[in-house]
């Protein structure tokens, strides 16, 4: 595995944006790092109101290269995108285009969010588990309903308004988001319904 490369990006308001560029079992050269900084930096310059950090991970899946990018906005929200292509540069370009589209959609609301939220988003610590697959329809009946835990990880639950939660889910390209409702001080869920609308669960 190639070691992570942490490189500086463009400057805003006297501060330097930081990138962490990682190749999973593939080498990433200086030319690709420069391309990432230039192209992604120009996208973020248009939409980000404060300096941010960005993590970009390149990997290989069968015959395609995969590029995953996560941008951490200083308000606490994150934007994420993924691109696939047979060429590594094209994979990044596809990822960058998706990031641009997501940020462009929320350009005005991100500006309002920057002005209205004086404090960064708070996060609650939580545990996240991966449960073993039950084998599907053709599998034998399980002997117990007790799930088998494959892995346990730490995760963070953001404290947001419902509107912020929907925006965060869209920016991250996620189908569902668990969050703490700031106004009601309880855990809520927003998710994308099959009909295209957004569902909101408030226990």
TrEMBL record:
<dbReference type="GO" id="GO:0043024">
    <property type="term" value="F:ribosomal small subunit binding"/>
</dbReference>
<dbReference type="InterPro" id="IPR003489">
    <property type="entry name" value="RHF/RaiA"/>
</dbReference>
<dbReference type="InterPro" id="IPR036567">
    <property type="entry name" value="RHF-like"/>
</dbReference>
<comment type="similarity">
    <text>Belongs to the HPF/YfiA ribosome-associated protein family. Long HPF subfamily.</text>
</comment>
<protein>
    <recommendedName>
        <fullName>Ribosome hibernation promoting factor</fullName>
    </recommendedName>
</protein>
<dbReference type="InterPro" id="IPR032528">
    <property type="entry name" value="Ribosom_S30AE_C"/>
</dbReference>
<dbReference type="InterPro" id="IPR050574">
    <property type="entry name" value="HPF/YfiA_ribosome-assoc"/>
</dbReference>
<dbReference type="InterPro" id="IPR034694">
    <property type="entry name" value="HPF_long/plastid"/>
</dbReference>
<comment type="function">
    <text>Required for dimerization of active 70S ribosomes into 100S ribosomes in stationary phase; 100S ribosomes are translationally inactive and sometimes present during exponential growth.</text>
</comment>
<dbReference type="GO" id="GO:0022627">
    <property type="term" value="C:cytosolic small ribosomal subunit"/>
</dbReference>
<dbReference type="InterPro" id="IPR038416">
    <property type="entry name" value="Ribosom_S30AE_C_sf"/>
</dbReference>
<feature type="domain" description="Sigma 54 modulation/S30EA ribosomal protein C-terminal">
    <location>
        <begin position="146"/>
        <end position="199"/>
    </location>
</feature>
<comment type="subunit">
    <text>Interacts with 100S ribosomes.</text>
</comment>
<keyword id="KW-0963">Cytoplasm</keyword>
<dbReference type="Pfam" id="PF16321">
    <property type="entry name" value="Ribosom_S30AE_C"/>
</dbReference>
<keyword id="KW-0810">Translation regulation</keyword>
<dbReference type="GO" id="GO:0045900">
    <property type="term" value="P:negative regulation of translational elongation"/>
</dbReference>
<dbReference type="Pfam" id="PF02482">
    <property type="entry name" value="Ribosomal_S30AE"/>
</dbReference>
<comment type="subunit">
    <text>Associates exclusively with 100S ribosomes, which are dimers of 70S ribosomes.</text>
</comment>
């Amino acid at each position: 595995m190639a070691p992570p490369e942490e490189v500086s990006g463009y400057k805003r308001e006297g501060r330097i944006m930081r990138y962490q560029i990682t190749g999973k079992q593939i080498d990433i050269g200086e030319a690709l790092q420069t391309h990432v900084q230039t192209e992604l930096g120009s996208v973020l310059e248009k939409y980000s109101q404060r300096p941010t950090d960005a993590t970009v991970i390149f990997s290989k899946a069968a015959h395609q290269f995969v590029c995953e990018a996560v941008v951490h906005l200083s308000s606490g929200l994150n934007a994420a995108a993924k691109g696939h292509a047979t060429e590594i540069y094209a994979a990044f370009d596809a990822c960058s285009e998706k990031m641009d589209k997501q940020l462009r959609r929320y350009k005005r609301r991100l500006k309002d969010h920057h002005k209205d939220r004086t404090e960064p988003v708070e996060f609650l610590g939580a545990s996240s588990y991966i449960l073993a697959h039950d084998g599907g329809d053709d599998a034998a009946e399980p002997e117990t309903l007790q799930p088998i835990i494959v892995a346990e990880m730490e995760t963070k639950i953001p404290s947001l308004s419902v509107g912020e939660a929907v925006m965060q889910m869209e920016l991250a390209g996620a189908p569902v988001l668990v969050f703490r409702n700031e106004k009601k001080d309880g855990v809520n869920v927003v998710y994308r319904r099959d009909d295209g609308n957004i569902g909101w669960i408030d226990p």
